[in-house]
Each structure stands twice: as C-alpha cells, then as structure tokens.
Give the backbone structure.
Amino acid sequence: MTNSMKPHRRFAGVVKAASLPLALCCTLLAPPDALAENCRLSLSQPRIDYGSIRRDAEAQSTTVVLAVRSLSVNVLCIEPAAMALRFVGAAADGQGFRFGREGRYRLSLKNAQVDGRPVDWAVAHVSGAPASGQLLPGQAVVAHAAGRPVVGRRLTALVEIKTELPSNALAVRSEIHLEGQGSFELVSSGVPPSQ
C-alpha cells in the first residue's frame, strides 16, 4: 500500500422488493494510509434512495432499469498529484458490479475537471484504450488531457449510477433487501489495477 493514495469511500446499495422501497446507499469510510495525508476523497451524499418500486401486473421486459442517479466525487490534495480512481466491488460481469444476486449497477465518471480544466479518462496501464470514464471491475482510470496524465490539486466529477435488475427479482411475496457494495479509491499511477 505504499504506492497508493487510498482514502477510499464505501459505496453500498440496498433495495427492498415486493412493495419495494428501493434504496441505494453510500456509506463513507476512510481508513488510515501513509499517503492519505496528501489527498482526501469525498462523495457529495452518503445515501441515494430509489424510493418505492412496485411490481407491474405484467412485466414489459426481462430487465427492470431503475432511474439513473448521480453523485459528485471530489478529491482535494495538498500537493499536486496524479488523479487516478477505481471502484472496488463484487463484479457482476466485466461491465458492472453486483446488485443483489442477479442485478448490476454501472458507474461512469462525467464532467470531470482537474484544477478547473476539463479532463478525459483513460484506463490505467492500457495504452490506446478509449476514454469512456466507465469504472469497470478490476480497472483504474486516470485523468488525461491532450493524451497525457494530469497532475493537480483538485478533481471534481459527476458519478452516474445505472442500476438494473432482472424482472423476476420483483416477483416476491414479501419485502426483500438487495444490496451492492464497493469503495471508491484514489490511487497513484504506479499502482497496478488489480491491487
């Protein structure tokens, strides 16, 4: 962990099904770390609530897509640092994270700026990878401008959360809880994506 600036934040999701109050929660935790004194990572809100979701009489699709939610992620550093983020959670597949037994959520970084300048995202340790801003299982993304990694003191970005469930997840007789958990991490560019 000596190469990591790892003030990370827990991200958890909870869904109740049947008369389904659905909630996606963010719980913030910051473990101590040797380099954490330079940078702090924070999220704009500790909880995202989907409210109640009711099962329709006839399912129109095999998948239920919940409303897109968003929050802000902010990184503030005392000294300039490379801005690289990853999200660590149980993978649903290569494109998203597990939400309940069969659902998934996907995270994308939008409108990112470092020190007030717009930046794109590139997958760490994968040259020539497209700059999508999507946080994928097992990968870190690095803030880039003009094809080069960006160093700065302040990062701001919108995190877009897209959650989907199989429609049969709503076919229950009593209230149930579905959950997805993970953590945002600020990492140095020297840390491999799998650590």
Summary: The first strand starts at residue 9 and ends at 17. The domain at 9-187 is CATH 2.60.40 (Immunoglobulin-like). The chain has one domain: 9-187.
